[in-house]
Specification:
The complex is a heterodimer of chains A (about 170) and B (about 150).
Chain A (H helix, E strand, L loop, with lengths): L4 H10 L9 H9 L3 H14 L2 E8 L8 E7 L3 H11 L5 E7 L10 E7 L2 H14 L7 E12 L17
Antiparallel strand pairs in A: 2-4, 2-5, 3-4
Helix pairs in contact in A: 1-2, 2-3
Chain B lengths: L7 H9 L10 H9 L3 H13 L3 E8 L6 E7 L6 H9 L4 E7 L5 E7 L2 H15 L4 E3 L1 E6 L10
Antiparallel strand pairs in B: 2-4, 2-5, 3-4
Classes of the chains: A alpha+beta (about 170), B alpha+beta (about 150).
Chain lengths: ~170, ~150
């Protein structure tokens, strides 16, 4: 389903987040020429149709103590990848899961998931548990733990309206 | 960095309002009522959480490829160049995540823009300005997207 120009304008206006004022949707509306009622109605509709996956507080997990964060990747035969991915999604500690294009020989992996934790050993155990649970423990895999974070912010699909956020290390 | 210490109200804010945030003319008043505090207290708590760098924003997480286009990219960067290249990549407004990771491909970032062409331009600019190849790993199917971060308190 398409997204109208007005919806795009609104998404750009809200990309930097709500201002912390009593009537934040009215303030957002002023930036894109809408009244408060239209802003709320459009956000609700985009949430209902799935254009907006979620609306709410976006946390900085590293700052909150989740510093052992691994992108766990697998090389799963194409015919099986969907079923294995859906199994991974049954695990509450798998926060993201998707299939991406392989780039052999540099990058043979096609199934990606994220596991976050406070402690590395635990994340390694969870990765092993996830692999066994999905029946892919015998397949090639890698756990890419993060080191430095150069930036974490929301996607901006239009020219930025707010200054980039300070990096979190 | 030591563990952030949070009040019970702050924990409840983070637990309950990553999704199902009230789309209401006075959302912070609605939250205040649920927490049993007043609206100004909620505004102060959120300002403070943001100032402390514990939350990024209160806003929309958009489904990929419905409004714009995005991709994940990786580079193999010599260690002595990594800080400079990481900062350069992160300086693009279209780059919204950029991490060093433990792998031969050691720099990973997400590029999101209004069109596929714009994303390709950013990747080409990074390749050109750094002289290093960029591996583009486009999304083929999403099974679970950002639905909020499940926090556990210790």
């Amino acid at each position: 389903m398409g997204v109208s120009e007005r919806d795009r304008c609104l998404l750009a206006a809200v990309a930097g987040g709500l201002p912390f004022v009593r009537r934040p949707f009215a303030a957002i509306g002023e930036r894109c020429g809408m009244d408060e009622e239209e802003v709320i109605a459009r956000l609700r509709r985009m949430l209902a149709t799935g254009v907006i996956r979620r609306f709410g507080i976006v946390v900085r997990h590293r700052a909150l103590g989740y510093r052992a964060n691994a992108m766990v990747v697998f090389d799963v035969p194409d015919a099986d990848v969907r079923q294995k991915a859906l199994r991974l999604c049954d695990l509450p500690f798998v926060t993201l899961c998707y299939r991406r294009r392989r780039r052999p020989p540099l990058w043979p992996y096609n199934l990606f998931c994220m596991i976050h934790g406070r402690e590395r050993g635990r994340v390694e155990r969870l990765a092993e548990e996830a692999a066994r649970f999905a029946g892919i423990a015998h397949l090639p895999r890698a756990a890419l733990f993060s080191r430095r974070c150069f930036v974490q912010r929301g996607a901006r699909y239009e020219p930025p309206l707010a200054l980039p956020e300070a990096e979190v290390r | 960095m030591t563990e952030a210490t949070l009040s019970d109200y702050e924990k409840r804010l983070l637990d309950d309002f990553q999704k199902e945030f009230p789309l209401h003319p006075r959302p912070f008043a609605v939250i205040a009522e649920r927490l049993g505090v007043d609206e100004d207290t909620v505004l102060d708590l959120l300002c403070e959480l943001q100032e402390r760098g514990l939350i990024s924003r209160v806003g929309a997480v958009v489904e990929p490829h419905r409004v714009g286009y995005s991709t994940l990219a990786a580079m193999r960067v010599p260690q002595e160049m990594l800080e400079a290249v990481g900062r350069f990549v992160a300086s693009h407004p279209e780059v919204n995540h950029c991490y060093e990771r433990e792998h031969g491909l050691n720099l990973w970032f997400v590029v999101a823009a209004s069109s596929r062409r714009k994303v390709a331009e950013v990747l080409a600019d990074i390749e050109y300005r750094t002289g290093l190849p960029v591996l583009d790993l486009p999304l083929e199917e999403a099974f679970r997207l950002d639905l909020g971060f499940p926090l556990t308190w210790e």
